[in-house]
């Protein structure tokens, strides 16, 4: 049926095949009879048993996987004809600390026990949870114990677990920033959670419209809003915490790239101000590599049991060895040294892209603080940013139109990820974008 034997091919004589396989001839005779009964072979006098003409199943049409990935707008899918993928969310994968990872992995393997490689705690390896608590307390102001940490397969799985628990509690909708991550909205929708847009301005999420939604849960990116790049202002933070103090209220804090702040230390996580009102999400996707699928969720203690049960039902627990290696990197200081190196590289790349945009798109305005792995370029009023992104794509540059990440109407823009390319390539990208704007 797979076509390995062409129509008309003769099968071995039953005696020969029986001897070759070390079975009785009767077994082979029965097998050949079954093939004949199913119409896959034909016993012909003088010719033995042959494969019939119609035995091969028509091949399945080839799946266009690359097109599917592009339609999902995944940042790592690069269509044909694109040599500069500026999709947001792509880190500098060439900077992955291979030597440090290998040292840490060897150290882990030297002392790992059989128990460490078992199913273990579905919430994560104790050593990693302890290391994360110390790291996040020092760098992000997070308040938690090791038992509060749930290690998961990136922020995406953390959002999935939260969506499942919220649905089980009767919460069928979540307020989200607008503009905000299209991927997050799609993720929640896949798990049956509707999203309600709340506008974002220069100071972050508008808390008044959040009240107007009547919803109990909001998901936001306060340290570096995606995609505008603004930081939630202190007065908005206070207002949001006051909103969260209401009964059954919950803030989902996606701290997706706070480690990449170039002009000063990032603002502290909101979770430290209200641990029982904020579920904190983070990962190594922007600091190490998204392919590691390592993240963490620190939720209010009142929902931790449900989240742990959902995690166990999902996959029994995250891969043990990468967890232990990350714990070793945290303990040795290699993770922090890697971040310092990456921040220096990314600041140079951001500066190069900014300089290129000033030279080739002087009429465009760049929004956001000096942080993260992307820029938002606001385009002249009246520009169709989707059509413009298509023109840019014709020059070999892939970028996201801001409209992809909006539910409410607003100014047009282009989101440009810069982490994966050298400064000279980013200058070339800015030149092509400027050329496209002039056509």
TrEMBL record:
GO molecular-function terms, A-Z: DNA binding; DNA-binding transcription factor activity; pyridoxal phosphate binding; transaminase activity
Stored Gene3D superfamilies: Type I PLP-dependent aspartate aminotransferase-like (Major domain) (3.40.640.10), Winged helix-like DNA-binding domain superfamily/Winged helix DNA-binding domain (1.10.10.10)
InterPro entries tied to this protein: Aminotransferase_I/II_large, HTH_trans_reg/aminotransferase, PyrdxlP-dep_Trfase, PyrdxlP-dep_Trfase_major, Tscrpt_reg_HTH_GntR, WH-like_DNA-bd_sf, WH_DNA-bd_sf
CDD domains from the UniProt entry: AAT_like, WHTH_GntR
HTH gntR-type domain segment(s): 1-54
The keyword Transcription regulation is assigned to this record: yes
Keyword annotations from UniProtKB, A to Z: Aminotransferase, DNA-binding, Pyridoxal phosphate, Transcription, Transcription regulation, Transferase
PROSITE patterns: HTH_GNTR (PS50949)
Ribosomal protein found in the keyword field: no
Entries under Pfam families matching the protein: Aminotran_1_2, GntR
Superkingdom to which the source organism belongs: Bacteria
Family: In the C-terminal section; belongs to the class-I pyridoxal-phosphate-dependent aminotransferase family.
Protein name: GntR family transcriptional regulator / MocR family aminotransferase
Organism: Actinoplanes regularis
């Amino acid at each position: 049926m797979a076509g390995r034997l062409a129509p008309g091919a003769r099968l071995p004589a039953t005696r020969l095949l029986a001897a070759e396989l070390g079975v009785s001839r009767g077994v082979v005779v029965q097998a050949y009879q079954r093939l004949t009964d199913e119409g896959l072979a034909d016993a012909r006098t003088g010719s033995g048993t042959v494969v019939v003409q119609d035995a091969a199943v028509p091949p399945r049409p080839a799946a266009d996987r690359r097109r599917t990935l592009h339609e999902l707008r995944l940042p790592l899918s690069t269509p044909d004809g694109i040599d500069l993928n500026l999709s947001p969310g792509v880190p500098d994968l060439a900077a992955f600390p291979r030597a440090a990872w290998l040292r840490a992995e060897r150290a882990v393997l030297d002392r790992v026990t059989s128990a460490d490689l078992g199913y273990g705690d579905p919430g994560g390896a104790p050593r990693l949870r302890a290391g994360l608590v110390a790291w996040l307390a020092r760098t992000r102001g997070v308040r938690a114990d090791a038992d509060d940490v749930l290690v998961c397969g990136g922020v995406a799985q953390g959002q999935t677990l939260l969506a499942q628990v919220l649905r089980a509690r009767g919460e069928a909708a979540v307020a989200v920033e607008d503009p905000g991550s299209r991927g997050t909205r799609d993720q929640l929708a896949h798990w049956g959670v509707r999203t309600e847009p709340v506008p974002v301005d220069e100071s972050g999420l508008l808390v008044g419209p959040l009240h107007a939604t009547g919803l109990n849960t909001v998901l936001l990116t306060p340290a570096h809003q995606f995609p505008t790049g603004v930081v939630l202002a202190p007065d908005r933070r206070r207002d949001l915490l006051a909103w969260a103090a209401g009964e059954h209220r919950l803030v989902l804090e996606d701290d997706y790239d706070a480690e990449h702040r170039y002009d000063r230390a990032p603002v502290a996580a909101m979770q430290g101000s209200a641990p029982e009102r904020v579920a904190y999400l983070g990962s190594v996707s922007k600091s190490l590599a998204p392919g590691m699928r390592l993240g963490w969720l620190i939720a209010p203690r009142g929902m931790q049991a449900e989240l742990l049960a959902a995690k166990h039902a999902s996959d029994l627990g995250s891969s043990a060895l990468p967890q232990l290696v990350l714990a070793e990197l945290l303990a040795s200081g290699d993770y922090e040294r890697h971040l310092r190196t990456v921040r220096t590289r990314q600041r140079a790349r951001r500066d190069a892209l900014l300089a290129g945009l000033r030279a080739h798109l002087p009429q465009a305005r760049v929004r956001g603080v000096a942080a993260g792995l992307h820029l938002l370029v606001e385009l002249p009023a009246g520009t169709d940013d989707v059509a413009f992104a298509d023109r840019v794509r014709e020059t070999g540059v892939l970028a996201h139109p801001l409209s992809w990440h909006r539910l409410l109407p607003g100014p047009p823009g282009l989101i440009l990820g810069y982490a994966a390319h050298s400064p000279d390539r980013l200058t070339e990208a800015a030149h092509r974008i400027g050329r496209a704007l002039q056509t």
